[in-house]
Design a protein that fits this description.
By secondary structure, this protein is mainly α. The protein has helices spanning 4-8, 12-33, 41-62, 65-70, 72-89, 109-127, 140-155, 159-176, 180-199, 201-210, 213-223, 234-245, 257-260, 272-304, 309-334, 351-370; strands at 91-93, 96-102, 105-107.
C-alpha cells in the first residue's frame, strides 16, 4: 500500500511539466499528420503509445529504484541481445536495419539500449567509488560496456543513437569524477586523431569511405546547405524555412504551409519542433523550450540531492540523456546540428522513444520522491 506521505512527497511540479510537454506533443503530431479525411491513424497510435508510456512511468515510480538498479546489468544484457537480434531478423527501412517486429508491434532496441546503458553505468559507478576520481585504466570496464552497444548500433547503421550513447556515457564519467590528467590525455588524443583526419589524406579518405553515402551527404549538406538543396540539404533547408516563417507569433494552429502542404519531411518525427515553431512562432516554441528547461532543472536538483550514489548517477544520466535529445533535435531544426535522426522527447511520434522517455522520467520521479524516505 502506498502511504499518504508517499503521495505528499511526489514532485507534482515535475509531473505537471511532463504532462504539459506531452500535450503539446500530441497537438503537434495531430497537426503534422492531419489529412483531408481527418486525423491520421498515426495520431491515434501516438495516443496509445502515450497511454502505455504513462503506465510504464507509474510502474517505474512505484518500484523502488534500488530494486531497478539491482537488475541493471540484466537489462543491459537484454538490450545487447535485442541489438544482436536486429542484425539477424531486424526489419529494414530507409537504408538501415534498426527495428524488431513482435506481432503488430515494431520497436527500436537501440532506444532501450540508451537507457539500459545509463542504468548499468550508474550501478557500476555507485558500487565502485574511487577517491580522487577515475584514471583511464579504471575506466576500462565502463569503456567496454559502452563500446559493445556502440559498435552494434553503428552496424545498423544509426549514427544519431551512437552519438547519444557516447555523449551520455561521457556525461556519466564526468559525474563519477575523472582525473585531470586523464581529461588532458583524452583531449590530446582527440586532437591528434582530428589532425590525422583533416591533414593526412589516406586517413581522411579511409574514414570518409567507411561512412554510408547518405551520411556523407548529410555532412556535406551541414557544411554547405546550398550544395544540394533538393537532395541531402532538403530536410535542413525546409526545416529552417518553417522555423523562420513562424516569426514571433506563428501562422496559427494547423495553418503552417511547410507542414500542412508536406514540404517539410519527417515533420511528425525528427522535425516536429519546426512544425511547432512555424505554427506557434517564437512565442510557442520558446514556451516549449522553457518547459524543458524547468523539467531538466528539477532533474538536476534531483541528482544533486539524491540520497545515495546510485540515485545521483541514475538521475544525472537521465537528465544528461534528455538534455542531449532536446539540444540535438532543436539544433537539427534550426540548422546548427547535422541531421542525425534524434527525436524530441515526449513530442516526436514514435512508440519506443515515447515509452523509453516515460520510463526514464518515472525513474527520475522515483529518485526525487524517495530522497525524503528514511528506509529503502
Amino acid at each position: 500500500m502506498l502511504s499518504q506521505r508517499w503521495f505528499a512527497n511526489l514532485p507534482w511540479a515535475m509531473i505537471a511539466l511532463v504532462f504539459g510537454i506531452t500535450l503539446i506533443g500530441l497537438a503537434a503530431v495531430y497537426s503534422a499528420t492531419y489529412t483531408s479525411r481527418g486525423p491520421s491513424p498515426l495520431y491515434y497510435k501516438q495516443l496509445v503509445w502515450v497511454a502505455l508510456g504513462v503506465i510504464v512511468m507509474l510502474a517505474a515510480l512505484i518500484i523502488d529504484y534500488h530494486t531497478i538498479g539491482r537488475f541493471a546489468y540484466i537489462l543491459y544484457a537484454l538490450s545487447l541481445f535485442l541489438l544482436l537480434l536486429v542484425m539477424v531478423i531486424g526489419k529494414s527501412g530507409m537504408g538501415a536495419q534498426r527495428w524488431l517486429a513482435i506481432g503488430p508491434f515494431v520497436f527500436q532496441p537501440s532506444e532501450l539500449a540508451k537507457l539500459s546503458l545509463t542504468l548499468a553505468l550508474a550501478r557500476y559507478f555507485a558500487e565502485d567509488p574511487r577517491r580522487g576520481g577515475y584514471g583511464l585504466r579504471d575506466l576500462l570496464v565502463p569503456g567496454l560496456m559502452v563500446l559493445v552497444p556502440l559498435v552494434l548500433v553503428l552496424k545498423q547503421p544509426d549514427l544519431g543513437t551512437a552519438i547519444m550513447l557516447l555523449l551520455t556515457s561521457s556525461i556519466m564519467v564526468v559525474l563519477a569524477g575523472i582525473h585531470f590528467r586523464s581529461i588532458m590525455t583524452v583531449i590530446v588524443s582527440i586532437a591528434v586523431v582530428a589532425s590525422l583526419v583533416f591533414f593526412v589524406s589516406p586517413v581522411r579518405h579511409k574514414i570518409w569511405g567507411s561512412l554510408k553515402p547518405y551520411q556523407q551527404n548529410r555532412i556535406r549538406a551541414f557544411i554547405d546547405p546550398s550544395s544540394d538543396p533538393l537532395g541531402s540539404g532538403y530536410h535542413a533547408n525546409q526545416s529552417k524555412i518553417a522555423v523562420g516563417s513562424g516569426q514571433i507569433t506563428g501562422k496559427g494552429y494547423r495553418k503552417g504551409t511547410q507542414s500542412q502542404m508536406a514540404f517539410l519531411p519527417e515533420r511528425h518525427t525528427d522535425f516536429i519542433f519546426a512544425v511547432i515553431a512555424e505554427e506557434m512562432g517564437l512565442v510557442g516554441s520558446g514556451v516549449l523550450i522553457l518547459l524543458y528547461l524547468a523539467l531538466l532543472l528539477i532533474g538536476v536538483d534531483t541528482a544533486k540531492n539524491a540520497k545515495d550514489r546510485l540515485g545521483v548517477f541514475m538521475a544525472g544520466g537521465i537528465v544528461g540523456m534528455i538534455s542531449l535529445y532536446v539540444f540535438i533535435n532543436v539544433g537539427m531544426a534550426v540548422g546548427i546540428v547535422p541531421v542525425v535522426g534524434v527525436p524530441l522527447p515526449l513530442v516526436s511520434y514514435g512508440g519506443t522513444s515515447i515509452i523509453t522517455t516515460f520510463l526514464a522520467l518515472g525513474l527520475l520521479l522515483n529518485i526525487q520522491t524517495r530522497r525524503f524516505s528514511l528506509f529503502y
